[in-house]
Design a protein that fits this description.
The complex is a heterodimer of chains A (595) and B (226). With 595 residues, chain A is an alpha/beta fold. Helix content of chain A is 39%, strand content 15%. Chain A is built from 25 helices and 18 strands. In chain A, helix 4 packs across helix 5. By secondary structure, chain B is α+β, with helices and mostly antiparallel strands. Helix content of chain B is 20%, strand content 30%. The chains are: A alpha/beta (595), B alpha+beta (226).
């Protein structure tokens, strides 16, 4: 009944490592000395699970763990700020589909991780955070750099652990890592008191297993599948909605096969971008607040929404009272708590996306007749094309920059982004075709995510893959210090800043809903990012005109190291289409006047 | 696909895309209610809140109570009472919660509880479950005879009787406790401590799904896979 072994990301990475066993790792295995301290046991647990890279920042209470890393083959990337470490590990997990690991010391180190952990939690990204803590007998005394880390992170983790025993700390770390990747992935945390890390122990960690109480259900109930299949057969306007869960479940093959076999139109969520090729004729791109008009029209008119691996976030649904008003909903998700949480599931199917899609495929007898419906969707594609105005005399349009970047790079290029207008333009105008190539902060909407995520993605990606970070000026400034890490580690990353000297999305909302009072949204004190990049030791360009874009992009992509292109874009450009917050998906605005 | 390849850019709005205005587009007639349920004749009504008694079997991990309390406050579940105590199985505790929510909220509370790592199993108790509450009442001691009589009527016990105050203990269902409090009101109630419900399923029914009632000191099998 379970697909535990093949689906376990750790097992996959172990297998991968075994396949391409490098001489170094072979030697290291042979030379592994017995565990003598709690911290060595922690690192051994990571090594046993095939962890290749960890991201972190040194500090007082985590020093014993770092000391144990000194003799390990695990690559450590020192980040400029712990938030960067959490985002980098998060992006690593998105690209590799296995939990990323980040480290921080106690107190401020641990609290600096919080934003990254919360981000991973909202996006169901596997993440293991290891935090130092003051010695056990000082806990509760308000000791130097003490914070109740398990208390602070309880609401934003799948589970967290306070490790109080050097003999079991390795197993605890293994369990936390396994739990992070099991079922619906998410962040876990182990708080490691300094004395526990330093104490003697000879206990080697055993195999990493998730806790007994959390075993998810991978195969859906067969009679529920049958009922759902019959409802799908009878549908007149069936629509597939693929969320990020399709990618996390490694179910893009099953998802694409399902869509092709029944010739059903597909809409994705923003985290689901890449689950199907966006240039496929069945794909209507992504729906929601800034999704395409045709995707939102399809959602509005479908009578059978087959939703896979999505939690029906409000940025997708708008107001639920107007979301897919005529549709019955088949909801496939591995988390039972997602069933009817936001949108009522008429046919809830709890299980792994790939397995349940196969079950459903087996159960469907007759292909629903969707010819007319497909034709209707195509009409909407013609009616509401994704387009923008580019008169010669206007300043550079951000959408144009994104299109040039897309054209200049391969299909497997990984795109990371911060949060704001630039994120929407990147998602709208980049044509994604592969899973795990779109790395963004969706649920939490964390400005500053893009650059540290690019670092994590670069470490996780193949050397041949390009990594491009599309950032905004405000977002870039929030974590720009991580550029020092990219320079030190010689990471080949291209940052494209879409610079409008605004917190642009806020400005767009202020203009639309606050009568143009642009309170605190103007960033015309932005530094010159090209020069700042050079100051960090990276390469920098500044681009103001259409005819400079392609050359700068080419040079930046060719440069074997971190590069930053500061694109000065039309400051007045806004993101459309737009569904007003809480509004109906079908009433997307195409211009400011329609809001 | 920039519009450079289209005939003219003059027709385009200054910022934005093509297509009819929102009001000119076709719109379906249907709608959903605030709970995301599609409106059809059967599902027209909004769900009214009701009181539900949930029982959760949990591992005695550190902080389990704060995790559960935190879950309720974070997700805005309206919790009425919560009691907790050990079971016959070592390292297991039973938590009994009374919540007041519409049906989808109760369902969601159960599922979110089941997701917590220390939670072994969760179930809602039927209306016929055995449930009881304990209350301590401290009343003015001016009329000890009458207080004693009312205490007897409600099968209570006097725990402390002094010249100024009398403290009694009562157990029973919510209605009985409420009635008793009304009855004691005439003497002047000084302080009240109520525990909230604790409850077990009736007969040989398992209180939480998968729980095997018995005295054996064996771990209960986890069943929260739903």
């Amino acid at each position: 009944m379970s697909k535990q072994a093949p689906s376990s990301p750790n097992a996959t990475s172990e297998a991968a490592e075994a396949d391409e066993e490098t001489p170094e790792s072979g030697d290291a295995d042979a030379a592994q000395s017995p565990v003598t301290t709690g911290s060595e046991s922690v690192i051994r647990a990571l090594e046993n699970e095939g962890v290749e890279a960890v991201f972190g920042v040194q500090g007082g209470a985590i020093m014993p763990i770092y000391d144990a890393l000194y003799h390990s083959d695990i690559r450590h990337i020192t980040m400029a700020h712990e938030q960067g470490a959490a985002h980098a590990a998060d992006a690593f997990s998105v690209v590799r589909n296995e939990p990323g690991v980040c480290l921080a010391t106690s107190g401020p180190g641990a609290t600096n991780l919080v934003t990254g952990i919360a981000d991973a939690n909202m996006d169901s990204d596997g993440l293991l955070a290891l935090t130092g803590q003051v010695p056990v007998d000082m806990v509760g005394s308000d000791a130097f750099q003490e914070t109740d880390t398990t208390g602070v992170t309880a609401p934003i983790t799948k589970h967290n652990y306070f490790a109080s025993d050097p003999d079991t700390v390795g197993d605890t770390v293994g369990e936390a890592l396994a739990l992070a990747g099991e079922g619906r992935p998410g962040p876990t945390l182990v708080d490691l008191p300094k004395d526990v890390s330093l104490d003697d122990t000879e206990v080697e960690p055993g195999p990493a297993e998730p806790p007994e109480t959390t075993r998810p259900q991978y195969v859906a109930d067969e009679s529920d599948v049958q009922t759902a299949a019959e409802a799908i057969e009878a549908a007149e306007r069936p629509l597939l909605l693929f969320g990020g869960g399709v990618i996390k479940a490694d179910a893009t093959d099953e998802a694409r096969a399902f869509a092709d076999e029944y010739e059903l139109p597909v809409v994705t969520t923003m985290p689901g971008i890449g689950s199907v090729p966006e240039d496929d004729e069945l794909c209507l791109s992504w729906a929601g607040m800034h999704g395409t008009g045709y995707a939102n029209m399809a959602i509005t008119h479908t009578d059978m929404l087959i939703a896979v691996g999505t939690r029906f976030d409000d940025r997708l649904t708008g107001g639920v009272d107007t979301f897919a008003p005529e549709a019955e909903v088949v909801h496939i998700d591995i988390d039972p708590a997602e069933m009817s949480k936001n949108v009522h599931a008429d046919y809830p199917l709890v299980g792994d996306a790939g397995i349940v899609l196969d079950q459903l495929d087996d159960a469907i007898g007759a292909t629903p007749d969707a010819d007319e419906w497909r034709e209707q969707c195509r009409t909407w594609q013609d009616e509401y094309p994704m387009d923008y105005a580019t008169p010669d005399d206007e300043p550079l349009k951000p959408q144009f920059v994104v299109e040039i970047l897309d054209e200049a790079t391969d299909d497997d290029t990984i795109v990371t982004s911060g949060v704001g207008q630039h994120q929407m333009w990147a998602a709208q105008y980049w044509t994604f075709s592969e899973p795990r190539t779109w790395v963004s902060s969706h649920g939490l909407g964390t400005m500053g995510y893009g650059l540290p995520a690019a670092i994590g993605a670069r470490i996780a990606a193949d050397d041949e893959q390009d990594v491009v970070c599309v950032d905004g000026d405000g977002s870039f400034l929030m974590t720009i210090q991580e550029l020092s890490v990219a320079v030190r580690e010689e990471l080949d990353i291209t940052v494209a800043v879409l610079n409008n000297e605004y917190i642009g999305m806020v400005r767009q909302w202020q203009d639309a809903f606050f009568e143009g009072r642009r309170m605190a949204a103007e960033y015309n004190w932005c530094p010159e990012f090209d020069k700042l990049a050079e100051a960090f030791g990276a390469r920098g360009w500044r681009v103001d005109d259409y005819d400079e874009v392609a050359d700068a992009v080419e040079e930046a992509l060719d440069y074997d190291g971190p590069s930053v292109i500061d694109f000065h874009i039309d400051p007045a450009e806004n993101v459309y289409p737009m569904v007003a917050s809480g509004g109906a998906n079908g009433k997307f605005a195409l211009t400011e006047d329609q809001l | 696909m920039s519009s450079e390849d289209s005939d003219s850019t003059d027709d385009l709005p200054k910022h934005g895309l093509k297509g009819p205005e929102p009001e000119e587009r076709p719109h379906p007639e249907g709608r959903r209610n605030a709970q995301g349920i599609r409106i059809d004749p059967e599902a027209e009504a909004e769900h009214e809140p009701r009181r539900a008694v949930l029982s959760a079997l949990v591992e005695n991990d550190p902080g389990v109570l704060s995790r559960i309390a935190g879950l309720f406050s974070r997700r805005q579940f309206n919790i009425e009472s919560l009691t907790v105590g050990p079971t016959t199985v070592e390292n297991h505790s039973r938590i009994t919660m009374v919540i007041e929510e519409p049906d989808p909220g109760i369902d969601q509370a159960e599922k979110q509880l089941a997701k917590l790592k220390p939670v072994i199993s969760v179930g809602e108790l039927d209306d016929d479950a055995v449930r009881t509450e304990l209350v301590l009442l401290k009343v003015e001691g001016d009329e000890p005879d009458k207080v004693h009589a009312v205490t007897e009527m409600y099968d209570g016990q006097t725990l402390d009787a002094g010249p100024k105050t009398i403290t009694v203990q009562l157990t029973g269902d919510e209605q009985k406790i409420d009635d008793a409090i009304d009855a004691f009101d005439q003497f002047g109630i000084i302080e009240i401590a109520r525990t909230g419900y604790t409850a077990l399923a009736r007969g040989d029914q398992a209180t939480v799904p998968g729980e095997k009632p018995g005295t054996a000191n064996e771990p209960t099998k986890p069943t929260n896979t739903q």
